[in-house]
Amino acid sequence: MMTxxxxxxxxxLAAAVAGLQQxxxxxxxxxxxxxxRDALKFSAQMLSELRTSKLSPHKYYELYMRVxxxxxxLEIFFKEEARRGCSIVDLYELVQHAGNILPRLxxxxxVGSVYIKSKExxxxxxxxxxxxxxxxxxxxxxxxFLRSYLSQVSRDKLPDIGSEYEGDADTLMDAVxxxxxxxxxxxxxxxxxxxxxxxxxxxxxxxxxxxxxxxxGKNLHVLSQIxxxxxxxxxxxxxPRVLEQVVNCKDELAQFxxxxxxxxxxxxxxHLQTLDVLLxxxxxxxxxxxxxxxLSQLMERLSNYAASCSDALPxxxxxxxxxxxxxxxxxxxxxxxxxxxxxxxxxYSSLLKFSLHVHPDRLDYADQVMGxxxxxxxxxxxxEDSKATKQIVxxxxxxxxxxxxxxxxxxxxxxxxxxxxxxxxxxxVMASVIIQSIMKNNTRISTAEKVEILFELLKGLVKDSEETxxxxxxxxxxxxxQNLVARLIQMLCNDEPEEMFKIVGIVKKHILxxxxxxxxxxxxxLVFSSxxxxxxxxxxEENPFGNEEAxxxxxxxxxxxQVIEALCSIPAPDLSLRLYLQCAEAANDCDLEPVAYEFFxxxxxxxxxxxxxxxxxxxxxxxxxxTLQRMxxxxxxxxxxxxxxxxxxSAKLLKKPDQCRAVYACSHLFWxxxxxxxxxxxxxxxxxxxxxxxxxxxxxxxxxxxxxxxSVALFVEILNKYLYYFEKGNPQITVASIQSLxxxxxxxxxxxxxxxxxxxxxFFASTLRYIGFQKQKGGAMGEKYGTINASxx
Length: 793
Prior knowledge:
elongated
């Protein structure tokens, strides 16, 4: 059906163009022979093609442009006729005898253009006559294009100040009146177009009307170009008349477009000085008008004006621009009770950006905007409309982008209240934006009060939501979010221990509400941040003045114990054990033996009760041995207890190679280089001999079950431990014991049942080369190694 209509339109247009071309041809011949009467006759017939009602606005426009080109040629002909002595007044009267009104008025406008140029009559009188005569065409489409033609031919002939057509003092007003009257009539015709045709085609007509909007808008552009319109005339005459027409037409498309035109074509300083009048029109617009877009553009233009003209700021203060805009938005929302949340938030987002650009020093303005936004959103619960939530994010992001500091945003009391209206996912996005802003600008948040406000803003990332189901969480996104929180915790700092301890306490309070999935990410940074504070206090006298509120390492360790206990309850034994050992080492540095012993006890309990995987046990045991080896705070009894436990765990590992390595690692617990009271050579030798026995047992078990023995790697590792203690001066490690171990390894390697292991062979060869190298060094070390036979045969 639509295809058939389009084909018919093409035929009608083709027929009209053919008729136009034929009459234009005869018109050109008449003009060439200076035959005025025939030129008028054929031009009128040519213009009759515009009387059609069959064409859509788009096709009609194509026809109109062809006619317009011909009329320009006719206008030149009329000028030449006038130069040849033809009375332009008579010609003006003559064209009015054309049979049909539409061709008559086109010809009248064309001759009127030449009449004005001749200056035989005041331009204001001719223009007034023409604009009145055009009332004769009331068909919306034909009338719109006729008046567009009148506007086109007259725009350079208005009696403006400084124009060659300027007359007496009142002519400027006449020029303004002419443009306003033509604008008013064109808008009426444009609005009436919506009623031309059946109701089922309304959407199609609205689209066609939208395509013709520039014909009406050009009048406002012409108005803005009239030099004589100063602020007073704009304020008293032009703006009220334009707004009266905009409001009274009660057409959504026209109101939106014309309000946008007014904002775009007239100077920003005029808008600033007429804010009352301009803003007064917005609440009177139809409910379906996209007011938020137009008002946002107005605020953006005013913001840019303030940015480009530093002298304009006093004007903004003088006219109380912010207050007027804020009140206007309130009235618009009140006038449109059905306005969606998206519209209201968009308006306040634009107002906030205006405030931040024009009055960056007035944080109370920004807070006031957010408070108004909260008021509008109250009672609506979480906003689910994606467009509205996007605007809320834009609103909340504006202060961060302007000030490059979250600290400034934290001063806005209504900032957290606005965030409450975001759904869970968008809340997380906004929280991530806040953390990224802190990291990007390296913002220092150094007071407990600000940290409290900040974590209230970030609760979407820190706290488990009751509505969120585990299955809905994207693991990669979750890890990225929690890593952001972890990085933030590390950035919180204050040089004053008391204040920093308060910050740690606040962070602890918030992260412990995070649930089992979050704690493994958030507890470690809090622990290390607390340990950093402990090291800051290290060496200070423990509460010298007896002040109960003073921050002491003991208090911090108590807090750390609570935090790690929460992590244990998940459970996360591996991570918890590591953190207990870190705390034990910090307590060691602070010479707090009971605290260090308690942390080690907790680590041992975790090892015994929670860690059952053999690989995890090996890793945990190595960490325990390594940490215990560095401890110097323990007395003999406590150290013996802990050491005995560690060696006992080593012997109970599942795999023999793991047992062997753990046992020879325990030897380091009895020999600490920088502590003379912790050098027990006999117990070191016992550990190494025990490791040898376990290695030998591993060989025998392998031979019994597989028919071949495992490689000699364990023996080579033990040999290296022998050499280490030999160099350190352990009297129990003799040349004979080293020599016998080398011979044992050689024997095992030559055994046919031993599984070949190139890595172990290379390791042994490297060890023998090292012995040879130490021999060649000479001196005391060379002398010690001198009697060792490092031959591999």
